[in-house]
Amino acid sequence: LTLGEGTRDFRRERVAWLIALRWQAMAGALAAAFFATRVVPGVNAGMVAATSLVGLAYNAFLWHQHRAGKPARGLTAPFTQALADITFLTSFLWASGGLDSPFSAFYLFHVVLVAILSDRSRVVIAVGITVLFAGWLAFTAWVPALQLGQWNPIEPFGLISRLLAFGLTLSGAAYLVGHAMRDIRDREQELEDRKSTRLNSSHHAHL
Question: Which has more pLDDT, 6 or 61?
Answer without folding.
Answer: 61
